[in-house]
Amino acid sequence: MRIFSGIRPSGELHLGNYLGAIKQWVELQNNNECIFCIVDLHAITTPYDAQEMPQRVIDQAISYLALGLNPEKCILIVQSHLKEHLELAWLLGSITPIGELQRMTQFKEKKKKHKKYINAGLLNYPVLMAADILIYQSEIVPVGEDQKQHVELTQTIAKKFNNKFGETFKIPKVQMNKDGARIMSLSDPKSKMSKSDGGKGCIDLFEEPQIITKKIMSAVTDTQKKIKYDRAKKPGISNLLNIYSLLKDISVAEAEEELKGKSYSEFKKILADLTISFLEPLRSKRNELASREVYVQEILSQGAKRAKIMAQETMDDVKKKMGL
Ligand code: AQP
Q1: Catalytic pick among 23, 192, 234, 268
Q2: Which of 56, 133, 163, 257 suits 48 as a labelling partner, its CA being 20 to 30 A distant?
Q3: Each residue of 51-99: pLDDT tens digit?
Q4: Mean pLDDT score across all residues of the chain
Q5: Could you tell me the pTM of the whole model?
Q6: What are the φ and ψ backbone dihedral angles of 121, each rounded to 5 degrees?
Q7: 3-state secondary structure at position 37
Q8: CB distance 81 to ligand 1 below 6 Å
Q9: 189 in Cβ contact with 239 (< 8 Å)
Q10: Could you tell me if 67 and 21 are in contact, meaning their C-beta atoms sit under 8 angstroms apart?
Q11: Which residues contact 232 (CB under 8 A, 6 or more apart)?
Q12: 21 lines ligand 1 (CB under 6 A)
């Protein structure tokens, strides 16, 4: 299967990005043709620092490698290195109804959050995302739940194009990791863990162990005592159980069984230690790679060369079909 997915270099990668997306990528690269992207063109649709961007991109590539992406098994690219993504986005924009874009949940949320930064790029984000996916004739898009709506819009756009101009694009399917699809904020377990929220609710993958412990120990729970999964009534504890079961690769029911009789603070301490020991080897790998930036740049430039061949093939076909 051809697979595509990406993450914005808009901050440090967090546990939600890992459990929702990257964990799946690491498994999928073994038996599929995967393209994983650093979507910097999407990152400029919300406030960012242009001076910091080049380093953010390289740091994210280093993190991808440290987390287990293997350039011998997958293609790693930076979105802005391939102008074909933008070219296709413009063409797809011409068949995408504005109403579809205006009803996207992410657009509505980001519009509320960045009141002084409501730009056309933010509205058009899903069209560029559709281009990212369709340009490689991707069949599967592994993402967290928050991106499901955008992949569904990609399907709509692809079908519309195929109907109007003739069979061109494969229709991609969304793939979500059942339990990791939505990791919630530790400080507000009704909102998703998010890079730009940072702070107490978000565990960065490479942050200091003492800080991880502090954040988990102060995670919002409830006034009861029982460690039981119930998203509606016990969102905090359910989120912690979810994280625990994913890090241990066991089911939530097994996690409940293991933790039976423990107090909330005992559970939090166990989870903090587990998270730290899970992340420790990844941190060492990242530190080791941090001194090899030239090697990492080379991986990205090789990735761009390989991806360009696929992207150009699709662009030639699309332009011909559209009479351009
Ligand atoms: N909390 C989450 N739980 C599960 N999956 C998540 N993802 C993000 N947060 C969670 C998944 O990670 C991938 C990359 O997302 P992104 O950074 O490109 O965009 P995002 O969804 O907007 O991520 P953030 O962390 O919320 O970033 P900001 O704050 O910059 O907008 C996607 O597959 C996403 O589903």
Answers
A1: 192
A2: 133
A3: 999 999 999 999 999 999 999 999 999 999 999 999 999 999 999 999 9
A4: 95
A5: 0.94
A6: -60, -35
A7: strand
A8: no
A9: yes
A10: no
A11: none
A12: yes
The two three-digit tokens of residue 15, written as one number: 């546990």
Residues 247-288 pLDDT 10s: 999 999 999 999 999 999 999 999 999 999 999 999 999 999
Sequence-distant (≥ 6) Cβ neighbours of residue 310 within 8 angstroms: 135, 136, 137
pLDDT digits (tens, 9 = 90+) for 165-208: 999 999 999 999 877 689 999 999 999 999 877 688 999 999 99
Residues 2, 33 contacting (CB under 8 angstroms): yes
Among the atoms of ligand 1, which is closest to the Cα of residue 146? 35
Q: Respond yes or no: is residue 110 known to be catalytic.
A: yes
207 Cβ neighbours under 8 A, 6+ residues apart: 12
**Ligand 1 centre distance from Cα of residue 182 (Å):** 9
- Please indicate whether residue 147, judged by its CB atom, sits closer than 6 Å to ligand 1: yes
- Answer whether residue 38 shows pLDDT above 90: yes
DSSP 176-203: --TTTS-PBPSS-TTSB--GGG-GGG--
Q: What are phi and psi of 225, to 5 degrees?
A: -120, -15
DSSP string, 264-297: HHHHHHHHHHHHHHHHHHHHHHHHHHHT-HHHHH
Residue whose tokens read 């997306």: 21
Position 84 scores a pLDDT of 98
pLDDT over threshold 80, residue 151: yes
Alpha-carbon span 164 to 129, nearest angstrom: 20
H or E element that contains 174: strand 173-175
How far is 161 from 5, CA to CA, in rounded Å?
Answer: 21
Q: What is the pLDDT of residue 311?
A: 98
Residue 193 Cβ contacting ligand 1 at under 6 Å = yes
CA 159 to chain centre: 24
